[in-house]
Amino acid sequence: MPNIEIVLVGPLYEGNVGSTARVMKNFGLSHLVLINSCPLGDYAFACASHARDVLEQADLCTLEEVYNRSTLTIATTGELNKSVCRSLRMPYYTPTEVRELIKDVEGRVSILFGRENWGLNNEEVAQCDVVCTIPSSPDYPILNLSHAVCVICYELSGLPRGTYTLATHQEIDPLYSHLDSFLDKIDHPDFKRENTMILLRRILGRTKLTIREVSTLHGLLRRAEWHIDKKK
Amino acid sequence: MPNIEIVLVGPLYEGNVGSTARVMKNFGLSHLVLINSCPLGDYAFACASHARDVLEQADLCTLEEVYNRSTLTIATTGELNKSVCRSLRMPYYTPTEVRELIKDVEGRVSILFGRENWGLNNEEVAQCDVVCTIPSSPDYPILNLSHAVCVICYELSGLPRGTYTLATHQEIDPLYSHLDSFLDKIDHPDFKRENTMILLRRILGRTKLTIREVSTLHGLLRRAEWHIDKKK
């Protein structure tokens, strides 16, 4: 992954700057750049909460410096221009597309966010390599600044997304054998057997069992078997 | 898409409730449910901004009512338990996986978010059908409440993600012919021609041109041709 920095251009409210620092750290990013920022006081640090370090280490510099040292600059904009006739803000990428775009980039990628009231101006957008727009509802397309940063950080964090160890077929197949022999024990009729086993396989198949869950189900069956055997 | 509702369980800070309403509306969701909420005053409405309607129409009810009327209840939790030995919060789904999971669900899907200070308790999580965890940095895994809602709404909004009309091959091929004849005009050597055309095709191919951009490039070539012809 490239070195990603979040650049706030002319933020007006210190709360948003603090919240931006927090959500960056939540997603494992730490390089915050502030250009013409409002003063940061106690409220900014309260909003940053445990991301005080991100705020303290924020880089105060100019847009020129950001452009000069970055491999790729990305302008975020909420102002959609769906006509393909204006090239300034078109074509735009979604955050998901930006993730694909930058995944092989080496070097520094700067993502610019504009002022709360009117975003980035045309001159600022024009200098960027890529335009990114977060898909939003036409009823209310303007996101709070730190929410926009949140979506971008979430998409670009590169954090692992949901891996847990599922039981393999090798681990699940004995459960099906166990269920089959359990059906014997409860005198489940032979002529229904095949369909019932398919139904059980469909249910368990789509739940994607963990090894722990397979083992618990074995345990429940054994316990039931023990009670049935005792009665005989 | 199912009917998605965002359920805040015991929110403590009115600002977060207001920000939640705003980000829901940003992503086209409108059904907010509040259970044991803090009182909502001016600050909540200031944070909701143009999503005042979402806040005003929020449904005040009990967890029991939510469970009874929903087809699927999803607990969000930041408290990861990576061991597969505790089934209460495992296996968990990421927001992306939840999107896949609910896309064919008809009926009401309720997504529960816990209190700012300690999330959902075990009893609340136990009653839910699915557990969802937003991937976050181990250095600071606790997201602000409205940021957590933001990520979920972003993933589940079902808003179109970045479609703009690219030029088709039929529209781009004449540009390559044009470039080829332009190379003639500037006496580009034949022995280099094939490689140069491939290089141009690689550059233009990976930029994914819009129709408008193709047409502008034709225009630039024509203008250059005109100046070259004039000199002859």
Main interface: chain pair and counts: A-B, 51 and 51 residues
How many separate helices of chain A? Answer: 10
Query: Strand pairing plus helix content of chain A: what structural class?
Result: alpha/beta
CATH class group of the largest domain in chain A: Alpha Beta
Mean pLDDT of chain A: 87
For this structure, the quaternary state is homodimer
Shape of chain A: elongated
Head-to-tail CA distance between termini of chain A: 64 Å
Strand order of the largest sheet of chain A: 3-2-1-6-4-7-5
The low-confidence runs of chain A, each spanning 5 or more residues with pLDDT under 50, are none
Q: Report helical residue fraction of chain A.
A: 40-55%
CATH architecture of the largest domain in chain A: 3-Layer(aba) Sandwich
CATH homologous superfamily classification of the largest domain in chain A: SPOUT methyltransferase, trefoil knot domain
Topology order of chain A in helix (H) and strand (E) letters: EHEHHEHEEHEHEHHHH
Instruction: Please give the domain count of chain A.
Output: 2
Reported by name, the CATH topology of the largest domain in chain A is Alpha/beta knot
Radius of gyration of chain A from CA coordinates? 27 Å
| Percentage of β-strand residues of chain A | 5-15%
Q: Give a short account of the largest sheet of chain A.
A: 7 strands, parallel
| Strand segment count of chain A | 7
